[in-house]
Amino acid sequence: MYLHFLKSEAYRASKLKCVYILLICLFFLTMFQIMIFTKLDVFGMTQEDVYVMSEEGYSAEGMSEAFNMGFNSGSSIAEADGDDSYLSSTVVTVTDEETGESTTAEPEYGSLSDLWGEGLFYHEDMPTLYNLVTSASFHIFSVALFTGIFLGAVYKNGYDKNLIVSNRCRFTLFLARLTVIGIYNVILLAATFLFTAMLDGLFTGEVIWNLDAAVLGYTVVSFVISFAFSTIVAAVACLTRNTAATLTVGVLLSMGFLSIALSLGTILLKHIFPLPDDFQLINYTLTQNAETLALDSAGKDVLRALICSLIYSSLSLFSSYWLIKRRDIS
Q1: pLDDT digits (tens, 9 = 90+) for 160-190
Q2: pLDDT tens-digit profile of 124-151?
């Protein structure tokens, strides 16, 4: 029966326009990010700055660090003397050392072509760019939308009722739908990989593959995290039985709103209790683990991501099972 349900749900998913629209959006989001990393150097940042912000993720410290880096970079650009590669946005006062006279020079604005060249990661290999794009969690955002639409549609047209009349194994039907969502997770990650390689070649003229076991392991762990996130959104769909509510919760979670709240909560807890400096509630959220996961992440970080994914997915599946069985009885 499971295979029949799986075939039916896969066919239903293939008819949803969002399946293809989300892939198109993923392509343009990937293109925008690859373009920034390989062709633009607007903010005056270094690779180390990018990696530091990536390691901080959605934490309050990370947002503060990003703000400070942006402010400092902007200040350094404004204070750069005689450098025409940047856009000038302030009036410059020039003092003659011999006469002591000061003159005011009008700002000179560069063209957009001055910003287009070799970016921070222009010479990096494809796995590095793939890591940067994947850590932005565009695939998690996409699968949150797909899960909400895919599961929410059955509550609007009475599709479930017709199936349950002939078969009371409703949780089997839910597992089939979850399998389809898992397959779409794989498709999104595969598309991210292909889009990254294609756009890397487009913007840099060369793709440095450097594929190894680390890339495969990183992709597998990324899939585990995104699928665990999907089970959470699916549990919300079972609870609310409403497409709008499921989409809202999924989008907010995928954008890191819960992580930001937990980060602020950690700061508050540290003021009240003598907690270790490295204690962070945010480290136990899926979005934070997805954001900070890297090709060379330490084993403890990978293990934490896997354990968190296992716990969240197990709790979500149990909650979904309990909700489904309870409604069957009632």
Answers
A1: 665 555 556 778 889 999 999 999 999 999 9
A2: 999 999 999 999 899 999 999 999 999 9
Q: Provide φ and ψ at 119, rounded to 5°.
A: -80, -170
The conformation of residue 153, written as its DSSP 8-state character, comes to G
Distance CA(300)–CA(318), nearest Å, equals: 27
Instruction: Give the span between the Cα atoms of 142 and 19, in whole angstroms.
Output: 9
Distance of CA 324 to the CA centre of its chain: 30
Biggest alpha carbon distance in the chain? Answer: 96
What's the CA gap between 189 and 292, in Å, rounded? 17
C-alpha distances in Å from residue 264, one per residue of 58, 85, 158, 282: 10, 39, 42, 9
- CA pair distance 293, 296, nearest whole angstrom: 8
CB-based contacts of 67, cutoff 8 Å, min separation 6 = none
pLDDT at 81 over 80: no
**What is the number of residues in the chain?**
330
Burial of residue 104 (number of CB atoms within 10 Å: 0-12, 13-18, 19+): exposed
Helix axes 213-240, 299-329, angle to 10 degrees: 30
CB atoms within 10 A of CB 81: 6
Sign of CA dihedral 183, 185, 188, 189: negative
